[in-house]
Amino acid sequence: MDRGGVGGQGVGRLATAYGQAIAAHREAVRRWENARRALAAAGPPAPDNAELVAWLARVAADLAGPPPGAADLTAAPVPVRVGEATTLDGGFPVLLPLAGGAHLAVDCDARDPRVGELLRAVVVRLLAAAPAGAVRVAGIDTVAFGAAFLPLRPLLDAGVLAPPATTAADVAALLDEAERHARGAQHGAPADRELLLLVAASAPPPRELARLAALTHAGPDAAVCVLIAGHPPAGPGDAPPPLGATTQLRLNERYALVGDPPGQPYSADGSGLAAAVLLDGDPPAASVAALGARLAAATRRAEALRFTDLLPAGRWAESAGPGLRTVLGRAGREQVTVAFDDATPHWLVGGRTGAGKTVFLLDVLYGLAARYAPAELQLLLLDFKEGVSFTEFVPTERDPSWLPHARAVGIESDREYGVAVLRELRGELTRRADVLKRHGVTKLADLPAGVRPPRIVTVVDEFQVLFAGNDALARQAVDLLEELARKGRSYGLHLVLASQSTTGVEALYGRAEAIFGQFPLRVALPGGGGVLDPLNDAAKALGIGSAVVNTAGGAAGANTVVRFPDAHAAAADLATLRHELWAARPAGARPPAVFRGYETPRLTDDPAWAGLRPGGDVPLALVGRAVDVAGSAAGFPLDATPGRHLAVVGTATAGADVLRAATLSLARQHAPGTARFLLAPLVAGTAELAGDLAMTLADAGHPVERLDAPALPDRIAAVATPDQPGASAAGGSPAGPAAGAPTGPAPGSAATDAGARSGPADAARRTYLVVFGVDAASAALGATDPATFRSGHDDLRALLRQGPGHGVHLLGWWRGLRRLAEDLGGAQHRDDVACLVALNVPGADLGLHLGVHDLSYTPRAGRALLVDRHDHRVRLIVPFVHSGPEPDGGDDR
Ligand SMILES: Nc1ncnc2c1ncn2[C@@H]1O[C@H](COP(=O)(O)OP(=O)(O)OP(=O)(O)O)[C@@H](O)[C@H]1O
């Protein structure tokens, strides 16, 4: 049994001593030393034996070292038992160095049952030696279709063993993954390395074998350990690729012959261990099951991602100067950080509905808000769909807290709101460009900390809605988006565009590339592969709670699969954090401006209402809330210019509400007795509203008259021109209350008469003629006076042109554009009513009436278009509605 240089007698004694030592780990070193001393006493050891002694001593020391489950398999090889050597003096365990850059090859494949058993035993021992989660196993079995791995089923169930690769394509994909793993490990921090144990139960085809062989040369930093069976193959053929750092086993009928382990040879001449080895059999099924259960439990524990894991140790501790960063989740055991910076200034996020888009955004937004103070970060949050994505961040009756970074939040937004947000951002961009210029720098990051404005992250959920109309509004959105995407990077303006569908986005007038080329960071949630390159199908296999994060514009090969925690399931943590941040808000911080698409605003709830008081120069007729970022009140100043009248147009009954809001807001700007109101409820259903309105106005001390259609022409004639009797405001000898009028001139009106006659330009002396359904009076207005040949229409037109000059304004609701145009006397007179609120009027008709060819307006419930022909303002508004209790007129100031 004397094979090579290891002397049989000496080895026998050493082995016996070592065999006993291994049985009692803690005793190993001491006994080994005893054995060595005994050997030394017997004479100088042969050089070969000295090496064996050294190596076995180290093995023994190792065994006495880390307890099971604690070995670091990527730092250095660990001794793993493969069987028992038999000598004349008895047996001793054979331990081979594996992992830490050392590998194993067996010349027979797993069709020899001993090989399968050996591979499984080694897999189990390596897994048992390392901490849970530190080893991942991938199997290759192209010969027996994975049969070699069947007994390891509990490990498969535990998620530490991948389903074996059984076809050439599977093997190629597995090697791709292994090579990526190796590259990642080589560039990653040593502490984060996970060992990939590649187990080939048979040698793969030559190409793949060459790749497998290359991995054995990659060194310990690659964190790969290869166990390959069927190598080198028996029989003739091309020389197989040489393996690096590998212990080679050869099987004969009964035994295995063990080659020299890498770096720790048994022999001087490469002949290996001079003892036949009986390989270990399968590990007991119960042990495999127990190991699987232990690893599965540990994996569950390790993988339980909590929302709080995303948060930093301290709040608002980071500077946004170089960019914004937050932890999104984990890839394997590694934390994944995402950034808004020069490399990834904008993000594109895709995922089918229910894929976790809202959760993803909440994770990111709260993660950022916890890291950066509001002076470093602001948020504009815009959602186009029905849902609750961003309601978190705004105060409600139940929870008054808000996220202090949120500047504006749009919930179920209109496209117009979206464009308003983009316009606001462009304004910000221009302002920032000035600041940068003044400081002689080209990037926000280069500004001194004291003057550096916050970075602004704008999230647009379901952004494709912006382009849905293929109209002027869509074109504006595209223009704005392109400019912001292009320039935002330098100015600290970042965009997150999220969508459940990128179809329609292609129709970006050929500018999709120009826009999305500026979005290097792509996040594909389940069903969101559309944001990746067409050749990149990494999103196909995603489950809820994971995403492909790609920093190369979606290109294949730059994917990281990230798991992120379920923010919905951590509502209490979110609320705690929000309250904490809210409590820390800077003094004077204001809650975000909120636009809720479904809301029906009431005049008396609007902050502008509270600010109205008598004494201003030009009274303002408020009609609704603008669809803009600030949610400002929308209205018309009614000054002395000809044409300062209000026409509300459309059949929608909201027309009456708009007139009511305009009337009440005007009344609030007049001291009692300085304005009078002539109310003509001509449309069925408006009498009650006019009655209530009259009562409210009278309670506030304003003279009110009610008119019916027949009385209207005379009153119009009376107030149309300054020289008409009764033209002046505040009860200047009105014809008396019309039928059913509840009030006459208010008490005290006589006292104001003198003032009313003091001059037509006196803004404090006004008459407001409020007609609910001017079109209903067309017969009465059309009638001609047989003596003068003047019709009511002539007087109406005189009023429109001359009335404002002496304080008389018409507030009229027409139910059709044609009637309005007719009453005005044709298109050339359209400026005679300069203030228009269009309700359900087709956009094309409105454009025609106004002489504006590219007017984009789609009539819909709860929206109106405000047009002021004098200052060329056209904007979408949400008209004030009348519901609930009456306001209390002008007395509650
Ligand atoms: N990381 C996660 N882990 C576990 N469950 C998750 C995770 N992310 C999301 N979910 C679950 O998936 C469901 C859908 O999530 P979410 O509301 O974010 O989807 P969405 O894409 O915004 O849907 P929609 O577009 O229809 O509003 C929720 O029930 C949520 O709890």
From TrEMBL:
Looking at the keywords, is Ribonucleoprotein present? no
Q: Is RNA-binding one of the keywords UniProt gives this record?
A: no
The protein's matches in Gene3D superfamilies, at most eight in alphabetical order, are given as: P-loop containing nucleotide triphosphate hydrolases
Annotated spans, Disordered: 722-758
The UniProt keywords, alphabetically, are: ATP-binding, Nucleotide-binding
InterPro entries in the record: FtsK/SpoIIIE/SftA, FtsK_dom, P-loop_NTPase
Recorded superkingdom = Bacteria
According to the entry, every stretch annotated as the FtsK domain falls at 333-534
Which sites bind ATP?
351-358
Q: Which GO terms describe its molecular function?
A: ATP binding; DNA binding
Regions of biased composition (Low complexity) lie at: 725-756
Q: Mind telling me what this protein is named?
A: FtsK/SpoIIIE family protein
- What organism does this protein naturally occur in? Micromonospora kangleipakensis
Q: Lineage of the native species?
A: Bacteria, Bacillati, Actinomycetota, Actinomycetes, Micromonosporales
